[in-house]
Amino acid sequence: MTNVKVNSVAKTYGITPVLSDITTEFPEGSFTSLLGPSGSGKTTLLRIIAGFIKPDQGIVRIGNNDVTDIPVWGRNIGMMFQSYALF
Q1: DSSP-H helix ranges across 1-87
Q2: Which of 27, 32, 43, 83 has the maximum number of C-beta atoms within 10 A of its C-beta?
């Protein structure tokens, strides 16, 4: 596993801003949880990191590689959606 860095990421849907200037880092080997109310942008941020959607601005790095414009199949990353069936 490697580190993930998000730098100044923003995303809007129409005129609704969902993420605005998000900068964070997930260190190598860490276990991280995103917590927040419904509609706060948690899933949008994860979808941007995984490559399912492209940010309007900002950079996503996995390791030393800028993957902002790399499609989901070229990122070698997985994502599991929350579901009560998992528990």
Answers
A1: 42-50
A2: 43
pTM above 0.85, yes or no: yes
Using an 8 Å Cβ cutoff, are 69 and 40 in contact?
Answer: no
pLDDT tens string 7-49? 999 999 999 999 999 999 999 988 888 888 988 999 999 999 9
Long-range CB contacts (within 8 A, 24+) of 77-82: 77/49, 77/50, 77/51, 78/50, 79/46, 79/47, 79/49, 79/50, 79/52, 81/43
14-18, 37-41, 61-65, 82-86: least confidently modelled range: 82-86
